[in-house]
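User: Some background: our group keeps a shared notebook of sequences we're curious about, and every so often someone picks one and asks for a predicted structure to add to the entry. Today it's my turn. The entry only has the sequence so far, pasted here. Could you supply the structure so I can complete it?
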Amino acid sequence: MKAKNEKPVIVAGGGIGGLAAALALARKGFRSIVLEQASLFGEIGAGIQIAPNAWHALDALGVGGLVKKEAVFIEHLLMFDGVSAEKVIDIPLDARFARRFGNPYAVTHRADIHGSLLDGCKALPELIELRTSARVTGFEQDASKVRVRTEKGDIEGAALVAADGGRSVIRERIVGDPLPPVTGHMCYRAVLNIGEVPKELRLPAATLWAGHNTHIVHYPLRGWKLFNLVATVIGKHTSGGHNELATPQEALPFFAHYCDQVMKLMRTPKEFRRWMLLYRQPVDNWTQGRVALLGDAAHFMLQYMAQGAAMAMEDAVALGVAAEEAGGDFPQAFRAYQDMRIVRASRVQLSANTLVGMIFHVPDGLERLVRNDIYRGRSAERYYDALEWVFSAPEYVRNFDAKRGAVRSPRSNEPRKAASRAPARSTGSRARAALPARRPPSRQRASRGR
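Assistant: Of course. Here's the predicted structure to add to the notebook entry:
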């Protein structure tokens, strides 16, 4: 395929957002060079939740089928009261959910998403060049090009997409805000073999236990072979480090107020990895001429909406649409891209940074009881209505492969109305229907016995 652009788009960062951006641009005919600062392309972290809007983005990028190979398609989103063990929220992820949002809900390993995007990029060598050990340190631009500075020399391109994370050096030039401070949000992560997990907690669900200034999340991974555990606490901590070793003796006292049911799980890991969680506040500009921010560089958020990667992939798809609509005029494309994305991504960012914590982290007394009463007994439809704005992928994501001109105005971020309740089948929903559900081991045995 002959590229539409003579000079390549330079993508700073080879994580999920950067690879997704290169892939989206390639699927619209634009050539790019991805610059990754590490010596190898890879992804750190463990589990990740894939909501329907994320599946739509993966399908648009052409890698949804690859990700589905290792994903576990869970049956519920659950929240328990961490003190009393009462089930407070139960959102069924059954056929009604898939019909409503056009795709299922699943969990997988972050490396499986990153690896699928990387494979997608490698399959298009004529449009995507992947470079490692290429740390971006700055840029200069004029009316016709951008010159990207790296530790190994300068690279000239038609445009620069900054997917270089929450500590983006490119953002410093465009936004000028300080680096994210230590927030007091900290999590302890562990990945267990499924046989180590108490049987009563081997649930086909993404499960959250809520307590004062803390919460615990767990779900299965890799076809029920592994089990992801993330325990979060808010307070004053001395460490500002990332992915550091932590002992159970350090972690468990933060959760001493929890019921024994979940503490049995917390006492299982022999060690944790400690992660300090950072975030930024929304800003009203992500672009400067031929340079645009994407993913965490644009809207660095806490993990509490489980939407960080989804927002980066939606950004990437929007970028591809905008570049095509602008005919390769990247300053115009980047302005359109920002108009398409900034309100939606900022709403998710604000929700993750502040609003969701008001549900998870209320004090253990009367406020906890009020919270439980608010959600007790809600119907599936009420939950689906509340999640419509985030789980329904924008029009430009769902119609990414449509012929040019067939996509409705990219400025339209309004959620679908009646159509969202009975959407046309997507590639994601068809692929989901063709795959056997990843059931918990106990259900697999029961099925074989029938």
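Suggested note for the entry: The chain has a mean pLDDT of 89. The chain is about 35% helix and 20% strand.
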